[in-house]
Amino acid sequence: ATPTALLVGTGRGAQLGVLIKGPQVLESTRRIDTVVLDKTGTVTTGRMQLLDVRTAEGTDRGEALRLAGAVENASEHPIARAITTGARQELGELPEVTDFANVEGLGVQGVVDGHAVLAGRAALLQQWGLHLDGPLAEVKAAAEAEGKTAILVAWDGAVRAVLVVADTVKPTSQHAIAQLRELGLTPVLLTGDNAAVADSVAAQVGIDEVIAEVMPADKVEVVKRLQGEGKAVAMVGDGVNDAAALAQADLGLSMGTGTDIAIEAGDLTLVRGDLRAAVDAIRLSRRTLKTIQ
Ligand code: ADP
Ligand code: MG
C-alpha cells in the first residue's frame, strides 16, 4: 500500500464526517465482517425521556420523584438526566444527595433526606436483597414489552416505585444497518440494557443478533469472544463503558457525540454521530485499498 493513496483516503474521510486517526486505520477495515453496535447513544439518540412514574400502594408519587430525582442528579447517565429533568419540571428544586455511588451498568445509590435510596436495574436491588413483585412488577413487564426501560426505585427497605423512561431510535439507524448488510457485514446489538428493550430496538432497525444485559466491563469480553470465533470485528460505541471494547476491536468507531474517553479509544470518529458515516468509512477504505492494489 502506498502511503499517498491511503492519505487521500484519509482526507476524503474528513469530508464525509469521519475522522481517521491515521492512514493505517483504513487497512484494518478491509477484513471486517462483523459490526458490533452499542445501543444507547449509538443506535438510539440516548436522549431519554421520563414517561411515567408508578408507585406501590401507600407511596406518594411526589416523594418517589423527589428521591429518585435527587439521587440521579449526581449521575451523568442519559437515564439519570431524564429522571432529574422530569423531577425538576414537576417539583422545582431537588434536595441534596450524600454518599452517592454510581454502580456502573446497574444504577445509582445515595442518601436523600435521611433515606438510603437505590435507583436502577433489578440486579442492583437484588444485591440489597430487594425484589419487585405485585402490580409494580406488571408495570415493569408492560413497559419493557413496549421497548421502554423500567428503573426501579427503592428506599426504606422496599421497592416503592417504577420510573418508565424511553429512548428513541435515530432516524438514520435503520438505513445504515441495511447498508452494512449490503456490504456483507453482520450487525450485532450489544447493550447493558435488558433483553426485552434490546430486542425491541433490534427489531426496529433490522438487527437479528442481540447480546443484552452485558455489564460494562464485559463488553470487551464479547468482542474478544467474537474474535476468538475467527471474526474480524468493528465496534461502534459512544460511552465510557464502550472504551475497552472500542480499543479491543479490529476497528473501533466512536460517536463524535459521545464521551471523550470513547473518542480516544476509537480508531475512527463519526463526527456527527450518524451511523451512516460508518458505512461511508468502510466503503471508502475498500475503494481506497482497491485503488492501491
Ligand atoms: P448501554 O450498554 O445501552 O449503553 P448502560 O451499560 O449504560 O447501557 O446501562 C445499562 C442499564 O443499567 C440501563 O439500561 C439501566 O437499566 C441501568 N442504569 C445505568 N445507569 C443508571 C442510572 N444512572 N440510573 C438508573 N439506571 C441506570
Ligand atoms: Mg452507549
From TrEMBL:
Localization per Swiss-Prot or TrEMBL: Cell membrane
Coiled-coil boundaries: none
Top-level taxon in the UniProt lineage: Bacteria
Similarity comment text for this entry: Belongs to the cation transport ATPase (P-type) (TC 3.A.3) family. Type IB subfamily.
Protein name from the UniProt record: Heavy metal translocating P-type ATPase
